[in-house]
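Extended Data, panel c. Modelled sequence:
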Amino acid sequence: MFTHPVTVNTALDIRRWEYDLNLKGTQNLDEARAVIIKTVSRVEGVLSDPGPEVLVLDLSDLDSNAAKVASPVVDESSPPA
């Protein structure tokens, strides 16, 4: 177990943000991916290059699909280099 805080310093002020989604009742995954990417792209700080992506992880249940949304963002909390 960690007992002390850890600070990670990198050369870039870019971080990758990831979030897992459960897409219930989604039949058109291409349309769902496009809507998620368009919505995430509009969030302040999200980079256009490389842009956000949506990866479908699980198609095992017809009523529910698992997806991971990942997007590079500018880390405003990092000190300037």
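The radius of gyration is 16 Å. This feature is highlighted in the accompanying rendering.
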